[in-house]
Design a protein that fits this description.
The protein is an all-alpha fold and 145 residues long. The chain is 63% helix and 0% strand.
């Protein structure tokens, strides 16, 4: 899927005459690795989410993220919640990039993180098994609500 994203570096390779600079930071070529893991905006988004959900993750590449997401953290339910949060964050970075290009508008970090947390909360509580412990339910409510 990652290779299918039409980042600017790929569009330039197809011969489309566009500026290949990342619209979020204006510092370097927009690639998948840069956009989601190395761009200062994305990095700040990761840090802001980590702070809100009281979890740290340090990834700077797709391979590191893939490795992190495949390892369980603090039990199955908590791993799935954390995975949902960070995948949802990456999902929301792409529209921010497009919004910057087409509308010249970018969402504030705190607002973006709140949207990610809210969407994760409602998705998770909608599919949470009834056998989930009260401790995990309280944890989910604390970090996402």
């Amino acid at each position: 899927m990652w290779r299918r994203l039409q980042t600017k570096d790929i569009l330039v390779k197809y011969g489309i005459g566009i500026d290949d600079v990342c619209p979020l930071c204006q510092l370097t070529t927009e690639t998948v690795e840069h956009l989601f893991f190395r761009c200062p905006y994305s990095h700040m988004c990761f840090r802001a989410l980590c702070k809100k959900i009281d979890h740290s993750i340090t990834v700077s590449s797709l391979s590191e993220f893939s490795s992190w997401i495949s390892k369980p953290v603090r039990g199955r339910t908590r791993s799935q919640v954390l995975q949902c949060c960070f995948v949802n964050l990456i999902y929301h970075i792409w529209p921010q990039c497009n919004s910057t290009i087409w509308k010249k508008v970018i969402m504030l970090l705190d607002k973006l993180v709140d949207v990610v947390r809210s969407q994760c909360y409602w998705r998770i509580v909608g599919v949470l098994p009834s056998k989930t412990s009260q401790r995990d339910r309280d944890w989910i409510s604390t970090i996402l609500n």
